[in-house]
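User: Could you check the structure of this?
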Amino acid sequence: MADLIRINRENRHAQKLPQDLLQRQARKTLQRRVMEMRNAGMTDEQINARSRILQNDAIQSTASALKEHFVLQKIAEMEKLEIEDADIDKEIEEIADRTGETPRKVKARMEKDDLIEALATELLERKALDLVLGEATYDDYEMNPSESDESASSTEASAVVDDAEKPEVTEAEKETKEEEKTAGD
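Assistant: Sure, the predicted structure tokens are below.
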């Protein structure tokens, strides 16, 4: 887990992503979202209205997604996580169940749209995230009434790292605060 914290710290320092990569991924993200809207039965007019909104924040959301992708890929690499053909077939069957199509039709469409590799990447990232969440511990804390104007709940769950790794998290928090303080000057 200490390695995961180090990866996150390194990723935070590597804020710059190549602009050509951001632009290319933002276009792909926008195309995928448009395809999803069409599949949901939206008209071209509705899609055009929403695609303009999506274009405005595509770069920011893509940058965040790319950073997340790189961290999860590194975790998968370090933990030697892999995706088998059976994993892909199982996910295609689940998609088919949700959409009411046959698995064969879903797979054919995904192959036609060149999305099988993207599905495998998504499954690998999901495995990496499940690993991280599986090792996290959660504690309940009481909230002060002033901290929660909208929430009626008196507790909140927050993830904390195992006791052995708390000093590293504390160091990471200190670095973040120092960076924010320096950036604010």
